[in-house]
Fold:
Amino acid sequence: MTTSHSLLLADVKARVDEVREEAIAVRRDLHAHPELGWHEVRTTDLLVRRLTAAGLSPQVLPTGTGLICDIGSGDTCIALRADIDALPVPDAVDAPWRSTVEGAAHACGHDVHTAALLGAGLVLAKMAQEGVLRHRVRLIFQPAEEVMPGGALGVIAAGGLDGVRRIYGLHCDPRLQVGQVGLRVGALTAAADRILVRLSGKGGHTSRPHLTSDLVYALSTVVTELPAALSRRVDPRAGMSLVWGRITAGSAANAIPSRGEAEGTLRCLDANAWRTAADLVPILADQIAAPYGVEVSTEVTHGVPPVVNDAGAIDVLRQAVEETLGAGAVAPTDQSLGGEDFAWYLEHVPGAMARLGVRPVGVDAAADLHTPGFNPDESAVALGTTILTAAALLD
Structure:
């Protein structure tokens, strides 16, 4: 790091303090008005208006939601990414900024990601105006992270990575206390697919199951046996896990239905094993259901590969955290079975994702991601802004 960069980095925390309250206000506004993937119209408009007011020229993506925005100039370009969509989950957080949209909430912390990146953009825009930003920084506000295979592919198709040398992102982690940042070289997340198995057959009265396909029994067998069969057909070191989230069949206790389905996610720590699952799962489902005389239709929707953090990018993030938050803020973190479409960016350019601690001080166990009670400590917004800004300056 050059001396000039050292001086700028020492100034980052003071600059972040200037946008702290606005960033938190934006986070609360987004939390109160969550929008699901590909429908983030209000969110996009809010971001466009604020970035334009800062003298920038944001470009809305061709899909109509999400945007990219370059700051500064130069051949070198560092990208910073945040995801902007919410989840179809009810909000159980008791706060004035509780979700006003029935059945939707920022239960994964994307409101924190977005507000932190907006704060970083405002800080970097001011630096560019003062002539102290040494290279170009691209803000990527990405839609539809929660929708497989993810909005990252649309950003890439729209040229969002053109000229980018490295990319950085953050993800909220309620397992880490606020003020901690989890860093890991190599695989951080898992590959993730959506699995949908549909069965159809002859229905009838429960008193005469032998005259039917007994579809509920067949479906329950597929639900229990398919994960077990996979565990014997895939190298156990791949960490493949099939977990069902929805099972639907029938409407009466004394009637065997003619249709039913089970839906879940298939997650895998190994990218090579993940790529074979699309062929293996339908074969096993057919074999398991065959004795019951039902028709089987299996859909495997490829989601995302694992996020694999580049060692050089992690070094930059580590330095950014240590220089601004202190060496004690860096925390180890394990590879998880969660999926993240940030992985698609890393298929094209090196980069890294850090885990941003959001568990309030004094709380032993915070509500997990994707649950109605997820409630991050808002001080994490400014910390996220600080890390993203510092990483952009250091790289």
About this structure: The mean pLDDT is 96. DSSP finds nine helices and 16 strands in the chain.
